[in-house]
Amino acid sequence: MRIITGGLALGLLLVQACATPVDTASGGVGTEVGQPAYTAKSGLSTSERFRLVLSLLEDGEAGSAKTELTLYLKSQPGSEIGQDLLRQIVDSPSDYFPMEYREVKLAPGQTLSSLSQQYLGSLYQFHALAKYNGILEPRKLTAGQTIKIPLTDTAREVFLAGSPEAITEVEVPVEPVEPVNTTPPEPEVASSVPSSESADQLHRAALDAYRAQNLDKAISLWEEVLKMDPNYENAKLYLSQAYELKEKLRKLN
Asked: Would you list the domain boundaries of the chain?
């Protein structure tokens, strides 16, 4: 890995952005001429609207997310996360993050949210990280893809510690299975599938549940993974994130 001054690359990115039609009323996201304006969803609870904001940002719909986020902030004006998400939408990457960065390779199963949590200290900075990398749809990533991590103070400390680099090498594999029933002394799946592979399968199932915003199921599955393999680093990381997100959503209600 190497530290790179991002001025030239970022300058090219900004030139490309200038060539894109921008809907300034919706937070700086290009929209097609004549496309109907996004209308905020009605009848949503505070936590449901917050989850919708995150989902829209993951889909690359920043203008629509800004509309929902503005409504969310009317009911939650003191929300620091909400205010920060709005800043991520409105500000340019060079205003939000430092110009210097370090490159990492995206491991299977990793997301911009997990990278943001590891290196920047907040899983909610994934939208700014996407803009920094010129990624239009954060959901659509490829294992092995190069991601630039801006060298914030937090990121510098993490790189010096070196621990996340080991985490990125953990592979996330194969098809999910049902959670192992712990009542029988010897679950049937354990007799036909090696323990490490079962843990990988459960981790994959937990990731699917997490992305579908089914936090309770995801937490349950990652707890099962850690019962099988207490040293499974990715499961530890995502379980911590899931508990954090669940607690924050609980406080929003």
From this structure: 1-31+39-169, 188-252
